[in-house]
Amino acid sequence: MSLALAKRIGLYLLAVGVLYAVLNEPDRSGEFAQLVFTALADATDGLLTPLD
Fold it and tell me: pLDDT band at 9, cuts 50/70/90?
């Protein structure tokens, strides 16, 4: 199996898993999306702070 095929299969499985989670637990999915967004914003802020 090539690396490209493995990546494609992994991405497909991730997309199916996310869709399943959103349809079955929309409240928890919203909380998770907010958590990920907050983590990314904090990480970006941490990277850009030394530049000020």
Answer: very high
Q: Is residue 39 predicted with pLDDT exceeding 80?
A: yes
* pTM assigned to the model: 0.54
Q: Give the Cα-Cα-Cα angle 15, 46, 7 (nearest 5 degrees).
A: 25
User: What are the strands, taking DSSP E only, across 1-52?
Assistant: none
Polymer length in residues for the chain: 52
Write the CB contacts of 28 (distance below 8 Å, at least 6 apart in sequence): 21
Both tokens assigned to 38: 């907050």
Q: Following CA atoms 33, 39, 44, 48 in sequence, which dihedral angle do they give, to the nearest 10 degrees?
A: 150
**pLDDT score at 52:** 59
